[in-house]
Amino acid sequence: MLEGEQLLAKVKTFSDRPLDQIARLCGYVSPSGRLLKQQFYRALVVAKGFALPAQEEGNKKLGRQADFTTRVHGNGNLIIGYTYTHRAGIEPGQEFFIEIEPDTGSIFLLPCNRQDLRI
Q: What is the span of the domain harbouring residue 92?
């Protein structure tokens, strides 16, 4: 990934191209091929001389940042995502009962291994 003057020079050279393509040309691509836009934008801001707050190592998140909202997909699925399952300590393969509170429509995930479940 290019940084500093090298980044600015490459961006200037390819300024007639779409921003996503410029980011890829500057090396802001993950091993899986996903475009690393936030890192690219951050590097541009730093290259232009602006000071940014340091990122804490222990506060790194994978993927998108959690904004605590989600949307039901057209097929009716509701995706929770890694950030939320990780925070809740949910492990891959873990099973849950789904309970809906009729008065509020709230959805609760209850681990199947709980002994005090109402059935």
A: 61-119
